[in-house]
């Protein structure tokens, strides 16, 4: 028995020395407006209005379990629930992120910053990493500029292509993606750990509008969290050209000839309430996963 314990502690120690402790933790997979969705009469949404289930707006954490720290990607409108989820499932106490990264100024990605303000938590110098246009947007528009002025948050400006280091072994590089940039630029984030590399792209207009080749990126990365807002164009009664996204059906065709191993690296995320990939029991979820792709779900852990 003692030998087993010695063995265990030895490996924990080695792990600690190597710092191989970080993992990605999925905190939400829904499009900006969340689930249930305002005014929606669809049975799937109605059901979620009637009973609380944990479906949160897209966000991921990178957790360092040895040092009990994490960085957060996106400040979603579900932020209080998401930090509580981390408390409940991981840390067993409430912990604020070391730092927050935001991709762009659409509600699902930054509106949760309000919970750090005076009317809510009243944090002190919480680091918020954003690109220059987003920084300017937060610094010059209420209510966000109050968070900056009274030091609830501390803006740290990032630049596309430039690496910053976080936790023990994590580096982050923002990459420019084409999107509806009304208030800010839009970033994807390259997140590199000691052993693995992930790419987080919750929102992008269309793959063909980008100067990068998605197939090459799948080969290069270990995990890719890809915009899955709509499965196909028939899902909503709105002019879809006003809200362009790569349809999941298009992404699947684009990646069709990759090996199963490479397809397995893809985790679809940021699904609209109309995209039944949100429902793990749907035929659509079954179909997408049968093609070799994954769907990001709350509580999923992926070692970095
Ligand atoms: Zn979004
Ligand atoms: Zn709905």
Q: Count the E strands.
A: 14
Bound molecules: zinc ion
Mean pLDDT: 93
Low-confidence stretches: none
What would CATH call the architecture?
4-Layer Sandwich
Radius of gyration: 19 Å
Q: Name the CATH class.
A: Alpha Beta
Helix content bin: 25-40%
Helix-strand category:
alpha/beta
Strand content: 15-25%
What are the secondary-structure elements, in order, as H or E? HEHEEHEHEHHEEEEEHEHHEHEE
| CATH fold label | Metallo-beta-lactamase, Chain A
What does this structure look like?
The strands form 2 sheets. Strands 6-5-4-3-2-1-14 form a 7-stranded mixed beta sheet. The protein has a 7-stranded mixed beta sheet with strand order 7-8-9-10-11-12-13, covered by helices on one side. The chain is 27% helix and 22% strand. The mean pLDDT is 93. β2 and β3 form a beta hairpin. It is globular. It is of the alpha/beta class. The longest helix has 17 residues, at 2-18. The two termini are 31 Å apart. The protein binds zinc ion (2 copies). One zinc ion (ZN) binds next to α2.
